[in-house]
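Researcher: Go.
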Amino acid sequence: MIKKILKVIGSFLLVTILVISSIYIWILFEKEKQEALAKPYLNKSMIIFSKWDFNNMKVLLSPSTLKNFETKKGRKVYKMFSRLGNLEKIDNINFISSTIDLNNKYITFSILGHFENDYALIKIVLIESNDSYLINYIQITSDIFIR
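Model: Structure:
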């Protein structure tokens, strides 16, 4: 009887370890895949975004994000972002997460941006669109905004 219980517990632990290992391997694979696909897009789009020309930036944004930036408050936020100056370089593009809803896949990254007037930590959520991405959300944190 005890042998049977120990076999069941051992089998359960083995299956649990296999499932957890599989999930961990899938997460690592997904991270590498998303970084490889999105890094070139991020490098290119952050240069365009940080020129602070709203008309050029429009093509980078998802429809909902564009709608938010076109409001009075959105324009104010974009103008505040422009206080950073031109982007000099970006470092540390780090994959944070990937989520899927019914229709879309969202990929979140953090980026350290070095600008003319200060550095900034950028959190950006991309949404897959055809064979590329669009910016669905952007948060820029910098000490320049509190000066």
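Model: The longest strand covers residues 87-100.
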